């Protein structure tokens, strides 16, 4: 997928949410702690939150991912990941003047942290064989 193709993916928060949802749980939602598929699904503003029936714990799409505890919207995360994939470094994003960054907004200042999280996630996935 080229950078130009990402324009449809980052159209809005809901589109990014469901893209990441399909990538994270291609065979259905499971608890990130115990991998149980016995869950309750709850909707809040069109986005799902879940509760594991076995462990009685709430979780969401962001739980246990690089997006957890991040205030950035998923649209900016998906854009930053797309930029990293085509070879634009976090340093380049951070150096971009805000007036030139335009809609990137908070992506530029948070780029270093985002790139570190993405690299850590890729390394962890490689070590697990995924």
What does this protein structure show overall?
- With 130 residues, this protein is mainly alpha-helical.
- It has a domain at 3-25 and 64-127.
- 45% of the residues lie in helices and 11% in strands.
- It has six helices and three strands; from the N terminus they run H-H-E-E-E-H-H-H-H.
- It has a three-stranded antiparallel beta sheet with strand order 1-2-3, with no helix packed on it.
- A hairpin with a 2-residue loop joins strand 1 (39-44) and strand 2 (47-52).
- Residues 99-103 have low confidence and may be disordered.
Helix content: 40-55%
What structural class do helix, strand and pairing data support? mainly alpha
Number of strands: 3
Arrangement of strands in the largest sheet: 1-2-3
**Beta-strand percentage range:** 5-15%
The CA-CA distance between the termini, in Å, is 20 Å
Report low-confidence residues grouped into runs of 5 or more: 99-103
Average pLDDT taken over every residue: 76
Major beta sheet summary: 3 strands, antiparallel
What is the number of helical segments per DSSP (H or I, 4+ residues)?
Answer: 6
From N to C, what is the helix and strand string?
HHEEEHHHH
Comma- or semicolon-separated keywords:
3-stranded antiparallel beta sheet
Brief overview:
The chain has a domain at 3-25 and 64-127. The chain has 130 residues and is mainly alpha-helical.
Give the arrangement of secondary structure elements:
Elements: H1 6-9, H2 13-24, E1 39-44, E2 47-52, E3 58-59, H3 74-85, H4 90-95, H5 98-101, H6 107-127
Antiparallel strand pairs: 1-2, 2-3
Helix pairs in contact: 3-6
